[in-house]
Amino acid sequence: MDLTVGRINKFVLKYYPFILFFALMFIMHMIMGFNGDDVKFSKVLSNQTLAGYISYRYYNWSSRLVIESILVVLTRQNMFLWKILDCVIYTLGVYYAIKLINRKNSTHIAFLGILLFFMYPFHEMASAGWIATTLNYLWCFSLAMIAFVPLINQFYGEKTNKFTYVISILALIFAVNQEQSCALVFGLNFLLLVYCIIKRKSLNRYNIFVVLISLLSMVFILSCPGNSVRFASEVSYWYPQFAGYGILEKVYLGVVPTFGLLLEEKIIFPLFYVILSLACLAKVKNKYLKYVLYFNMLLILVLVAFKTLFDVSTLGTAFGSTTLTHLTSPFGAVLNLVPPLKSALVAFAAETVSSNALAIAIAVYLLLSSCIMLFEAFSGFKAVILFIAGFMSKFIMGFTPTIFVSGPRTMMFFYFILIMLILMIISRLYDEDKINAKWDKRMTRSFIVLAGLNYLFVFAIVFVKYGLF
C-alpha cells in the first residue's frame, strides 16, 4: 500500500503541470454545448450512409475525408465523449510539444510551458462549432505531435516500440488530412531529411515514411475535385473581389492581417517578441545593436497599446482603405479625454498609411526582425525555420477566399509554434545561467498572472457565449 502511494506521489510530482492542465481544461469543457456546425454534422448520418456522405464531400466540397468521417460519427454521440477525448488529446499534444524542448525533463520548464499554452485564446476553437473546429485544428496539431514521437525518441536516444509506431502512424494519417497541418508536417520533416543528408547523418526510416505520407496527402488535397468546387463557391459567396487579385494582393493578405491578429490578441506574440529581444540583449555587446533591441521592445508595447493606430486584422480588401481603430485601449481612453491630441494622431495615421504602407512596413519589420533575433539568440537557423514554418501556416491563408471568414482559428498552428519558441528561448537562458533566482521568480509570477487572467477571460466567454445555459 505504501509502495503504491509512493508511486502515485512520485507520478504526481513529475507530471503535475500536465495534470493541472488537463483538470483546468476539463472544467472549462464541462460548460461547453453544441453550437455552429456541430448541429449540422450531427444530422448527416440520419438519412444517408457514411460512405455516401464521404463520396459526396470528395466530389463537391472537401478532401478532409478522415477528419470528417470521425466528425460526423462523434457529433452523433453524447458530447461528454468529445469532452474527454478533446482534453486527453490536447494534453498529450501539449506534453509532447514541451517534451521536444524540455530535454532535461525540468518540471519548472514544463510548468512554464503549461502556463504559455493557457495564454492561447481557446474560445477560438468554438468559431465553427466546438467539435468541428477542434477536430480540424486542435486535434491535427496534437496528433501531429504524437506522430513525431518516434522522432522525439530518437532525438533523446530512446527506443520506440511497435505499439507506439502504430499509434504514431494512425495519428499521422489524421494530422495530414488538414491542409495547414499537412504542409507543416511535410515541410519540417522534409527539412529534417535534407539536414541529415547534408550532414551525412544516418537517415531515419520513419522520417522518410512521414515525408512520403505527407507528400501523398498533399497530392490528394491538391487533386481533390471537391476542393476546387468549394474554392469557386467560397469566392462567389464570401469574397467576390478575391477573383481579381494577383500575387501581390494575396501576399498582402497573407502578411498584414496575420500580424494584425497577432497584435490584436495582445499576449503570445508580444510576449515572444519581448522575451526574444531580452535574450538578444543578454548576448550582444555592440551598444548600437542594443539600441535597436530597446527600440523593438518599445515598438511592440506601442503597437499593442494603440493597435498600430489602425486595425489591420479587419481589412477586407487588399490595398484598400485602412480602418482606424476606436482607440479603446487604456491609452486610447486617455487620448479620448484630449480630443486635439487624438485628432492629431488619427490625422497623422491617415496621412502615413496611404495604401496601407505603414501596415505593410510594420508587418514586414516584425517578420524580419523576429527572424534576425532568432538567428542571433540561437546562433543558427533551426529556430528561424520553425518560426517561418509557423508563419507560413497562416500566410498561405492569404491565397484562400475564406481568410477573413475562417478568422483567428487558422492562427492556431502559428500560436503554438510561438509558444514553443518562447519556451526554447527561456530554456536556453536557463542553460546559459542568464536567469537568476530573482528574475526567475518575477517571470514565473508574471506568467501565472497572464495565464490565469487569460484562462478566466476565456472561461467567461465560453460560459456566456458558448455555454450550456
What does this structure look like?
- The chain is mostly helical and 469 residues long.
- It folds into two domains: 1-158 and 437-469, no CATH class; 251-435, no CATH class.
- The protein is 74% helix and 0% strand.
- The chain has helices spanning 2-29, 37-42, 50-60, 65-74, 79-101, 107-118, 130-147, 149-155, 162-175, 179-198, 205-223, 225-238, 247-265, 268-281, 287-306, 330-336, 339-352, 357-378, 382-395, 403-406, 412-431, 437-465.
- The longest helix has 29 residues, at 437-465.
- The model is unreliable at 312-335 and 351-355 (pLDDT under 50).
Helix content: over 70%
Distance between the termini: 44 Å
How many domain regions? Answer: 2
Radius of gyration from the CA trace? 23 Å
Principal-axis shape equals globular
Strand content: under 5%
Q: Roughly what is the average pLDDT, rounded to an integer?
A: 86
Structural class by helix and strand composition: mainly alpha
Characterize the largest beta sheet: strand count, sense, and whether it forms a barrel. Answer: none
SS field, number of helical segments: 22
Order of helices and strands: HHHHHHHHHHHHHHHHHHHHHH
List the helices and strands and how they pair.
Elements: H1 2-29, H2 37-42, H3 50-60, H4 65-74, H5 79-101, H6 107-118, H7 130-147, H8 149-155, H9 162-175, H10 179-198, H11 205-223, H12 225-238, H13 247-265, H14 268-281, H15 287-306, H16 330-336, H17 339-352, H18 357-378, H19 382-395, H20 403-406, H21 412-431, H22 437-465
Helix pairs in contact: 1-5, 1-6, 3-4, 3-12, 4-7, 5-6, 5-7, 6-21, 6-22, 7-9, 10-11, 10-19, 13-18, 13-19, 14-15, 14-18, 14-21, 18-19, 19-21
